[in-house]
Amino acid sequence: MSDPDQIREALLAAFDKQWPGFRESVKRMNFYRYHPRAIASWPVGRSRFDSLSESLRKPQGRVYFAGDFTEDSHSNGASQSAIRAVKDILQKRD
């Protein structure tokens, strides 16, 4: 499945199954098929645990940053960040 519309529909169906009504909260979904760096890393003196990194995990108005680079340097960070972002979105919705 490589068509963005099919991927969007599959993701929304999965989100809706997990969190009924979530679909209505999604206004737009962007797909990026590449990333300039293959592995997330932080420069010397920085880490995913510092205050600047922590601020990235906080909602920026209606924008939520999620992805493996926000939580970890491996793919499990993507699922961790998705759970974090969805919880934040649902909490604001209530």
Q: Write the H/E string, N to C.
A: HHHH
Spans of at least 5 consecutive residues whose pLDDT stays below 50 are: none
Strand percentage lies at under 5%
Count of helical segments? 4
What this model shows, in words?
By secondary structure, the chain is an all-alpha fold. The chain is 46% helix and 0% strand. The radius of gyration is 15 Å and the shape is globular.
Which structural traits does this protein have?
single chain; 94 residues; mainly alpha; 2 domains
Produce a short descriptive summary.
It is built from four helices and no strands. The protein is an all-alpha fold and 94 residues long.
Please render the helix and strand layout as text.
Elements: H1 4-18, H2 51-56, H3 68-71, H4 76-93
